[in-house]
Amino acid sequence: MRIIRTTAAAALLLAGLTACGPTAEAGADAKPADPTAPSAKTPATSATTPAPEPSVTAAATAALPDMVGKGLQSAQDEAQAAGFYLLTSHDALGRGRNQILDRGWKVCSQTPTTGTHSTDVKVDFGTVKLEEKCPAGGDRGEPEKAGSTMPDFVGKAVKVARQSLDSSTSITVNDVSGQDRMVLVESNWQVCSTDPAAGAKLDGQPVTIGAVKFGESC
Length: 218
Prior knowledge:
There is one protein chain. This protein is an alpha/beta fold. The protein is built from 3 helices and 8 strands.
């Protein structure tokens, strides 16, 4: 009986080893996956429809009224009511004055003139004070920057001369009326003379301006 039990146990042990053997052997001999082997197919994604390009909207247009002869404030209000909001103004006498109180100025000219225009156009009003007359020779506009030659500033506002010259220029302004007054509000003073004179070369040298108030004789 003892031999039979031993033989049976041995048989069971051998059967177990036989069953485990191929699994271990297969694990030992397993080869890594071939990277060149075709992989499982992934489901194809549907093509996305490209977003439509934004359409270019044409600029809006409107009729710009004729504001010449109106007060600056009224002209600005009327322009905005018509759809124009990019507004500016300047001194039509070329004196470089700022239109601080719009109701104290009137319109002598406008750019662009009356007609149909894009509403994003800049509307520029040439103006004078209410008690002044519009310039007979036309709008004198804003001062241009001086180049390498001294411009002719005689008869123009001292402020215009200063704005035209390079900002690094050393400028001295003298009252040549004989009253030796201080020149405070330069837009109220007109140029009588300059040193260097008009036409001279400008090369960084100091500039001296002789001036009197508008309405006075040089």
